[in-house]
Amino acid sequence: QVQLAESGGGLVQAGGSLRLSCAASGRTFSRYSMAWFRQAPGKEREFVTSVRWIGVNTYYADYADSVKGRFTISRDNAKNTLYLQMNSLKPEDTAVYYCAATERQRDLRLRSLYDYWGQGTQVTVSS
């Protein structure tokens, strides 16, 4: 079992930055593929970014087109923590952001493949 807890959300002006954290507890964090999803009011939960292990101390990151070049996912396995650095924020980035974990290594954009979810943290970007 893996427990996930997000933090770092808040209110920021357009063009600003935030860094989200996701603290993981339970089983071996480094073995899991991790992702961030987000859900805006009245919309489906959508993929933002994921990171998976591909070799010794090497991870591969994938990004949705809408955040590519602005968001960066990273992980600190020693601290069992996943991060999302969000720069150049836009009002359309406003959503609840969730971290998720899975033992799978493929198709990481599909939310149905994730076994563990945090409770989410609200990000609001004002224009």
What does this 3D model show about the protein?
- The protein is mainly beta.
- It has no helices and eleven strands.
- It is globular and about 40 Å long.
- 33% of the residues are buried.
List the helices and strands and how they pair.
Blueprint: E1 2-7, E2 10-13, E3 18-26, E4 33-39, E5 46-55, E6 58-63, E7 71-76, E8 81-86, E9 95-102, E10 116-117, E11 121-126
What share of residues is helical?
under 10%
Shape: globular
Look at the structure and give the mean pLDDT.
94
Tell me the span between the first and last alpha carbons.
40 Å
| Beta content | over 45%
The helix-and-strand class reads mainly beta
Radius of gyration: 14 Å
How many strands appear in the DSSP assignment? 11
The string of secondary-structure elements, in order, is: EEEEEEEEEEE
Largest sheet: 7 strands, mixed
Q: What does this entry show, briefly?
A:
The chain has strands at 2-7, 10-13, 18-26, 33-39, 46-55, 58-63, 71-76, 81-86, 95-102, 116-117, 121-126. With 127 residues, the protein is an all-beta fold.
List the keywords.
four-stranded antiparallel sheet, 127 residues, 0% helix
